[in-house]
Design goal:
It is built from 14 helices and 20 strands. By secondary structure, the chain is of the alpha/beta class. The protein folds into 3 domains: 400 residues, TIM Barrel; 60 residues, Oligo-1,6-glucosidase, Domain 2 (Oligo-1,6-glucosidase, domain 2, Alpha-Beta Complex), CATH 3.90.400.10; 57 residues, Sandwich (Immunoglobulin-like). Bound molecules: alpha-D-glucopyranose and calcium ion.
Length: 562
Amino acid sequence: MTSVLPRTEWWRSAVIYQIYPRSFADSNGDGMGDLLGIRDRLPELAELGIDAVWLSPFYTSPQRDAGYDVADYCDVDPLFGTLDDFDSMTSRAHELGLRLIVDLVPNHSSSDHRWFQEALAAAPGSAERDRYMFRDGLGQNGELPPNNWESVFGGRAWTRTENPDGTPGQWYLHLFDSTQPDFNWHNPWVRRQFEDVLRFWLDRGVDGFRVDVAHGMIKAEGLPDWTPPLAGGSMGGAGTPEGGDATAADPAASRAPFWAQDGVHEIYREWRTILNSYDGERILAAEAWVDPLTDMAKWVRPDEMHQAFNFPYLETPWAAAPLRAVIDASISAFSAVEAPSTWVLSNHDVVRHASRLALTAENPQGAGIGPKSAGLPIPELGLSRARAATALMLALPGSTYLYQGEELGLPEVIDLPDEARQDPTWFRTNGERYGRDGCRVPIPWEANSPSYGFGPSDAAWLPQPAEWATLARDVQRHDDNSTLSLYRHALALRRAHELATGELEWLDSGADAVLALRNGDVRVYANTGDSAVPLPAGEVLLASGPLGENQLPADTTVWLRG
Ligand code: GLC
Ligand code: CA
């Protein structure tokens, strides 16, 4: 395939920083982060050396899934501010040279959305009901759900409605919480509404969209029953939202009838033409939990989306051989469709990598960790591995996603009190899965301020651990050995040495546990083993941790010149 596309588009090499609005910065002291809080902290992100920010949802929402349950796609929830605040934040980002990407949640709305309320009020078979996935139940009186699908958050994926006269009615599908009914994407009316939503935010100046559950919007014809295969040996296994076994010989063969259906691609082609009609290289980034990578690459064919999150990379353990394999597979799958590979280690849905990389028990995506989890990490080990893993990731060609707080080395918060937990996963599994609250705790800015500088008061919607004081940004800022300094130096070097647009070449490291590569004029050695190895010769540009006398210690990555 020959390309006429320029290779210099910003998103091919961008570092995109994920802001989780409720936990980033609170401007008014109510304990909930907000848009003005974000606006006023943007200079600190610009100083870190990122290119763009992606904001998780801030739209009108009853917050049953932290805003991934949208009740109005074209307004800001009063919890987070107003549309004027949004404009003010966007202008500030652009003044600082940062692009701004917002989240689009098209698989489902909130059950509070007017479109769903109208559907509930209308009769079975009506145009209003056809916006969503309503079906008659099975059994003599429709008392059984239409099929056996289970919700990603636990429990069944169907809820029965009540007719206006109080009798039980049809069922509706929700792949997530019962307050998140799935849209019927075969309905052209639904498609038109979302085209308007795209235009609304593009007209307001956003630089793109991160598309939520971009592998889920179309369901297989007839909604056939499906039983997930037994969990495999990987970190992801059957616990990933895709529900397939990432280690199986042919993951596509065991694919659920609600994930990765071919029909989704036509939607993204339509969206791409809309984005292309705007100036300034606006982008679509897919949250698509699809295995293998060669299938995921379909989401980023030249006329579809621009990027897809590289979850197979995120799910790879800290070990040289599987890392090398997934890096090769990523570069080859994405370059086959002329897309950049992306890299990511943390987000708001997974255990933070400063904890995850030192877990000793399986932890499927979304399960989280809490006081009773098996295989809890040793914090120091987790932090060394996280710093080494980040230093490796930032040397790879392509575009990289960072999640707020990872630049401070924040671990997962394990000991949240049960009554503080808010993730629907926790409730829908009766506490069997802790869920994702542990990676969503409001982040620390100042060691000696109330709520560690998250806001002007002590309030924080999830309690912050006392150790946050030592991890606060103002403490780390002037410490050359801090995790924040490591990120800042690595990002500056990545830019200076043009690593994001470079080519990767593997080198012989002389040890199985050590990954060695060259990207342009930088050599990178990552020691994933548990003992030190001799440090190769060369000027050290960056080290993820203290180096011994001519030694590359365990769980350490180093960048050398030349
Ligand atoms: C995506 C989001 C997650 C949310 C789910 C349902 O996976 O990242 O946070 O709960 O979709 O919208
Ligand atoms: Ca607030």
